[in-house]
Specification:
This protein has 8 helices and 4 strands, in the order H-E-H-E-H-H-H-H-H-H-E-E. The protein has a 4-stranded antiparallel beta sheet, covered by helices on one side. By secondary structure, the protein is of the alpha+beta class.
Amino acid sequence: VDLDGQTQVQQERIEREIIDNQPLVSEKLSTDKLRNEYDVEDSVYQSKIRELTKKYKYIRKTRGDGNCFYRAFGFGYLEQNLKNELELDRFRRLVADLKDKLVQLGYQEFTVEDVRDVDVEPMARESDNIHIIALTKAAQVSLRVIYMDRSETSQLTTHDFSHNDNEQAFQPMITFLYRPGHYDLLYEN
C-alpha cells in the first residue's frame, strides 16, 4: 500500500472540494448567517454572535486556503479605495516597482515576473456595483496579489507606526472577523 500516494490523492481531493465550494471572496452576507455556523446550544458563541451583529451588518467570507488574511486585506484595501484615485495611483506605483524591489532583495526574477501584471484598471469604472463586481472578479485571480503581499510582508522589518503621519496611511480601517486560523471581512453597513 502506497501511503504517500494515498495521502497525496486525499490532499488533492480536499483542495478540490475547497475550490469547488468556497469562493475566494464571497458577496456581502448578513452577519445573522453566522448563527447557523455554530451549534444553537453553544451559548458562548451564540452570545458573541449576537453582540457582533449589533455592530456589524455584513460579512464577506474568504476562502480558507491559508491565504485568507492576505486575500481579505487586499480585497478590503482595494474595496475601500475604489474611488480614491490618489491611493489607487499609489498602489499602481507600488505594483510597478515591486518586481525590481523583490529582485534586489534576492528573489529570482522569473519567480516574480507576474507581479507587474496585477491590474487595477478594471476598478476604474463609474458605478459602485460595477466596482464591486470588478473587484470580486479580480479576487478570483488574486494569487499574484497574494504572492506580492506575502513577498512584501516577508521583507518588512520592525517599523515605528507611532508617528502621526502614518495614521493617515491606514485610513479607512479594515475590520476583520478572526476565528482561529481564519480571517473574514466585516462591515457596519
